[in-house]
Amino acid sequence: MLNDMKRRNTPTKQAVLSVLSSSTKAMSPDAIKKKIDVSIDRATIYRVLNRFCDDGVLHRVVADDGKQYFAMCQKCDENEKPLQHFHFRCTHCETIECLPLPVNYTIAKGYEVKNVNCVLIGVCKDCA
Amino acid sequence: MLNDMKRRNTPTKQAVLSVLSSSTKAMSPDAIKKKIDVSIDRATIYRVLNRFCDDGVLHRVVADDGKQYFAMCQKCDENEKPLQHFHFRCTHCETIECLPLPVNYTIAKGYEVKNVNCVLIGVCKDCA
DNA sequence: TATATTAATGCGATTATATCGCATTAATCG
DNA sequence: CGATTAATGCGATATAATCGCATTAATATA
Ligand SMILES: [Mn+2]
Ligand SMILES: [Mn+2]
Ligand SMILES: [Zn+2]
Ligand SMILES: [Zn+2]
């Protein structure tokens, strides 16, 4: 937990985590909502996802379609930094996946990189 | 020109190009609009920018704020592919710049990368 | 130069994503 | 059980971007 606010365990949070942990892909709030049987308010979904990101449970990718996608963090527990990796958006099956491909860069002196948001766009191996 | 549709030369297009060619940064449609003296409709700005992207005159970056930014293409004339490079969004001065830093990746076999959208987020050298 | 063609524009409406305020509900703890 | 307050539902709101359509004007042609 990066945030010290007390969190409560709720069915909504459990359901969201359940959906994302059983997915190999990053998912949009709407796609997550659709995967949950019971009706959950849109605003609640967003708030749950944002809190999980704050807490380092999930990470967020903004794709080139301007939308947010969420996925489980792998190395986020432990005090390790979350692994910065590329994402892949397949224009055919319209999915976004976390690639096991770290983002490497050698940036000019003076810049301070705090975060990255990197998406490769094309056709995934399942659709090729 | 990647597109064979006949384009007409208009004051709006000239103004947009003038603004972007005198900027080292990628700019949002709204920022571009503000830099132009005469009033131009929002929809027109978007259409002009989209056409320029289609024609390979400009390229588009979607930042992690979900917004679109536009910048001149360097290697887009000629029949060369446009250079795929990282961008940098400074959270302090709120600008987005094209970095002279190519995006390199070795992706698993089967994937076909058609485009990239890569943004590094942090504090730029002018703000550090 | 005058006229025809149609790309480009202005304007309003529309779509879509995401957030916010506030009253209510319910998780947690003593 | 009762108190505290995090979490939720609902409606309103903010913002980005696009679309339909009538009008304007850039360009080509006579
Ligand atoms: Mn990821
Ligand atoms: Mn660029
Ligand atoms: Zn695919
Ligand atoms: Zn800066």
From TrEMBL, chains A, B:
SUPFAM superfamilies: Winged helix' DNA-binding domain. It comes from the Bacteria. It holds the Pfam family FUR. Signal peptide: none annotated. This is Fur family transcriptional regulator, ferric uptake regulator. It comes from Zobellia uliginosa. InterPro entries: FUR, WH-like_DNA-bd_sf, WH_DNA-bd_sf.
